[in-house]
Design brief:
It contains 22 helices and 29 strands. It is α/β, with parallel strands linked by helices and 659 residues long. It has a 7-stranded mixed sheet with strand order 5-4-17-16-18-19-20, sandwiched between helices. A 7-stranded mixed sheet has the order 12-11-8-6-7-14-15, sandwiched between helices. Strands 21-22-23-24 form a 4-stranded antiparallel sheet, with no helix packed on it. Helix 7 packs across helix 8 and helix 12 packs across helix 13. The radius of gyration is 24 Å and the shape is globular. 51% of the residues are buried. The structure holds 5'-O-[(S)-ethoxy(hydroxy)phosphoryl]adenosine (WTA). The site of 5'-O-[(S)-ethoxy(hydroxy)phosphoryl]adenosine has 22 residues, from helix 13, strand 20 and strand 24.
């Protein structure tokens, strides 16, 4: 416990009263944004206010128009502007910061690699030349299926350099998930690796990649990084190349950054939605890069001399925006850690903060809950005084976890930014500007300046403060997704149908989250209102999960819901009806778990599989998921009288262990 700060008891009392915390004066004094007028200025000067974001970038040709809304909701930003993302993240820093560290990489076994901007630039150029040599052309989608190794951001920036959009698939996803995404994107190139370490053991990744490739419809050329050396042998098949060989052949190569239009696609990122098919979210070069740069600067308070660390995985949007593009565009040092927080010991993260004098830490509530459980003795072993700001993302953070983070990691001297955003929004949307606004634990904060987020009821009318409703955004923003890859129709259906009124030319974006708002405009995000569950900050579609379970031999029908979990936030609960002739026993349970891991990956592993004769259904045959959630959470059940089969509820209840 800190002795400079207020006592835990006082802090607890303030939290209980829902009180707010002012940002520390020492932080405000040096903050990138410390003028509260920014909110009003941006409102009055919208959309031109976003020139401030665009000004953080180097443009080859100036844009004509900040926002083109002539074809709503297909908004365009910074139209006719020309730029290259890799030149913005690398080349423009070389004169002044060429010898400063761009990426500080820490491997799971403790090995380290450090890249200066010059070195990163050179490696990116060589790999860009190698991609060209392989036949990659502008606008070809290159898939990456890689863990947290430096070759991943190198490959991403190399793609950006030659104008080839990347599509990164999280390494923890299964072979099936890789194949689905490659097929959907028509991707003919894959960059992957032989394997990686998990808790010290080598893990074969290439087998999974090869298995996925068998189901890819088009011919694929693959690059394989040799991460494990002698710890794991691997063979290269036809059309498979070794990364080192390719790069050696291009030693010293220089590739002119391709001039991209602001609206040209920078990357695709697949995410889960209501239906089974993952959604290919399209982000652009100008709007996205401006957005992540501006939010990195104003919310994460990044300065070039910082050593900033986002502990997410680059396989998710957080890593794209806040490990790679935002921090590098601002010319700072971005830390990248390969491993898990508890290997070899539970103080691994704090050891890294201490060793590297990390100035900002951006992590997820699920990690904070795990740290809390492990105890404060782990951070206490280390000097964390280099930290200036803390951030969280991915799911709501409860006030107790907020307080623990604020006290035991931040020593009550660091503002905590709880940032709400999504794959689709490209970057942060709702959070406090740490040099300006007070913090209210449990609430993400007000919408960022220039962002028009509201909480509405089912009719689209704003709810009163304190009442639950739906979060919507009723003005466009530069970092927004432009469409779903090759599926404009689904883009409109998924995000714009619910609350827009096209006849009135009113376009409202619906993120599918529930929320509350208070008198000060602070938004508390309550969680998804669609069929998506959030496991350890990872979005999983229940439809995808259900189709995986139903695909297992012996399963007749299945319903998946999220149940509350102390560490993961939510966990997967599977309710399963067996086919005639099959027993709902241990063997089937294992095959179901395996089926889910094969279809999606270990992160989706069901916490509990409950076999049942029937599922609670309405008279029209719709599964009552809400009841199944109540059961998973050991909660009071709502009204069951409208069910076709009310008796099944207590039967299922008796089978679920609420420990
Ligand atoms: C949830 C991750 C509460 C939300 C960047 C959203 C949050 C989904 C927060 C997006 C937060 C993210 N408070 N909920 N600070 N941040 N979420 O696309 O439900 O992986 O819709 O993007 O995570 O998840 P995604």
């Amino acid at each position: 416990m800190s002795d400079q700060g207020e006592s835990e008891v006082e802090l607890e009392a303030r939290l209980a009263e829902g009180e707010s915390f002012d940002p520390p004066a020492s932080f405000v004094e040096q903050a990138n944004v410390a003028d509260e007028d920014i909110y009003e200025e941006f409102e009055e000067n919208w959309p031109e206010c976003w020139e401030q974001a665009a000004d953080l970038l180097t443009w080859e040709e100036e844009y004509d128009q900040v926002l083109d809304d002539s074809d709503e909701p297909f908004y365009e930003w910074f139209t006719d502007g020309k730029l290259n993302a890799s030149a913005n993240c690398l080349d423009r820093h070389l004169d002044e910061r060429g010898d400063e560290t761009a990426i500080e990489w820490i491997g799971e076994l403790g090995e380290t690699r450090s890249y200066t901007y010059q070195e990163l630039h050179d490696e990116v150029n060589e790999f860009a030349a190698a991609l060209r040599e392989m036949g990659v052309e502008e606008d070809d989608v290159v898939t990456m299926y890689m863990p947290m190794i430096p070759e991943l951001p190198i490959a991403m920036l190399a793609c950006a350099r030659i104008g080839a959009p990347h599509s990164v698939v999280f390494a923890g996803f299964s072979a099936d998930a890789l194949a689905t995404r490659m097929n959907s994107a028509d991707s003919e190139y894959l960059v992957t690796c032989d394997g990686y370490y998990r808790r010290g053991d080598p893990l074969n990744h290439k087998n999974k990649a090869d298995e996925g490739l068998e189901d890819v419809e088009q011919d694929v050329t693959t690059v394989v990084v040799d991460r494990l050396g002698d710890d794991l042998d691997h063979d290269l098949g036809d059309s498979q190349h070794d990364w080192d060989d390719l790069v050696e052949a291009q030693a010293g190569a220089s590739v002119e950054p391709v001039t991209r239009d602001a609206e040209d696609m920078l990357f695709l990122m697949y995410t889960s939605g209501t239906t089974g098919e993952p959604k290919g979210v399209k982000h652009t070069t100008g709007g996205y890069l401006s957005w992540v740069s501006w939010t990195s600067q104003s919310v994460l308070d990044i300065k070039p001399e910082d050593t900033y660390w986002c502990s997410a995985d680059i396989g998710w949007i957080t890593g794209h925006s806040y490990i790679v593009y935002g921090p590098l565009a601002l010319g700072t040092t971005s830390v990248m850690y390969e491993g898990t927080p508890d290997y070899p010991e539970k103080d691994r993260l704090w050891q890294i903060v201490d060793d590297y004098d990390v100035t900002q830490l951006y992590t997820a509530p699920t990690a904070i809950r795990a740290f809390m459980k492990w105890g404060e003795e782990y951070p206490e072993k280390h000097d964390l005084s280099s930290l200036r700001l803390l951030g969280t993302v991915g799911e709501p953070i409860n006030p107790r976890a907020w307080k623990w983070y604020y006290t035991h990691i931040g020593n009550e001297e660091c503002p905590v930014v709880d940032t709400w955003w999504q794959t689709e929004t490209g970057g942060m949307m709702v959070t406090t500007i740490p040099g300006v606004a007070e913090m209210k634990p449990g609430s993400a904060g007000p919408a960022l300046p220039g962002v028009s987020a509201k909480v509405v009821d089912g009719n689209g009318d704003e709810v009163d403060p304190g009442e639950a409703g739906y979060l919507v955004v009723d003005k466009p923003w530069p970092g927004m997704l432009r469409t779903l890859y090759k599926n404009d129709e689904r883009f409109i259906e998924e995000y714009w149908q619910e609350y827009s009124d096209p006849d009135e030319d009113e376009w409202v974006y619906f993120p599918e989250d529930g929320a509350k708002i208070d008198e000060d405009g602070y938004i508390t995000v309550l969680g998804r209102v669609d069929d998506v569950i959030n496991v350890s900050g990872h979005r999983l579609g229940t439809m995808e999960l259900e189709s995986a379970v139903v695909g297992v031999e012996g399963v007749a029908e299945a319903a998946i819901v999220g149940g509350k979990h102390d560490i993961k936030g939510e966990a997967v609960y599977a309710y399963v009806i067996t086919e005639d002739g099959y027993e709902g026993g241990e063997d089937l349970r294992e095959r179901i778990i395996e089926g889910v891991e094969d279809a999606i990956g270990p992160i989706a592993r069901p916490e509990e599989v409950v076999f049942t004769e029937d599922l609670p259904k309405t008279r029209s045959g719709k599964i009552m998921r809400r009841l199944l959630e109540n059961i998973a959470n050991g909660e009071e059940l709502g009204n069951t009288s409208t069910l076709r089969n009310p008796d099944i509820v207590s039967e299922i209840q008796s089978k679920v262990s609420n420990d």
